[in-house]
Amino acid sequence: MPNLNDILAQCTNVLPGHGPMMTLEIFSPQEQVLTDEEILSFWQMLSAPDQTEWDYEDNEEFYRKSDEDVIRFFRSKVLARTAALACWARDDGEIVGMASIHRHTEPPKEHCGELGFSVRQAYQRQGIGYRLVLAVLGKAREAGLQRIESSCFADNESAVGLLRKAGFREEGLRVGAIKKHGRLRDIREFGLLL
Ligand SMILES: CC(C)(COP(=O)(O)OP(=O)(O)OC[C@H]1O[C@@H](n2cnc3c(N)ncnc32)[C@H](O)[C@@H]1OP(=O)(O)O)[C@@H](O)C(=O)NCCC(=O)NCCS
Q1: What digits encode the pLDDT tens for the residues 22-56?
Q2: Would you say domain 4-150 falls under CATH 3.40.50.620?
Q3: Strand (E) or helix (H) holding 84
């Protein structure tokens, strides 16, 4: 696996396809003071239809929070959560991607973490998801985690491709594990030993 510092060094480069004005920065939201606008930008990214396929209809009320509620929720709960490792991508004040690992805190899974990721649609297919995942894996390794797990809908080719590219191995299929719009959906399970 590449060295975390090498990955982060690459991440301030100008990205091809976005012109000379776009610079991408990958950072840990827990290590910086975030503006309210950045928190709202992050929330807007996560609430986009292409990002919420997993759980939107079950948590509709949760996603309909007011700006004040979103900011309060993030400052008091999400950013203060010590069991989460996170890397966000920022382009000129806009949050355009994230990868996070939720750490299990109890034995026998305290060596494990659960990876999730998301990149704003207009920024996809430019290597941002890959850089974010490698950056947060580097943090997980520094924190002493030994195994990372992730799962996605069986037909989510972009997530599957990203996980494979980052070194994850497919470990199984949970047939009909999620019910969406009355239809049973299969879940692919992935794992990586750090
Ligand atoms: C999954 C996601 C984060 C990928 O982000 P991204 O920045 O576009 O990914 P990258 O450009 O870094 O691509 C990394 C690899 O992922 C795969 N990939 C990405 N998009 C793909 C697509 N549309 N189709 C097939 N493979 C794709 C490729 O293998 C790619 O490697 P390559 O460029 O060498 O071919 C993004 O598509 C997304 O936000 N999807 C919606 C949210 C989601 O599904 N999250 C996971 C829920 S479990």
Answers
A1: 578 899 998 888 999 999 999 889 888 777 666 65
A2: no
A3: strand 84-91
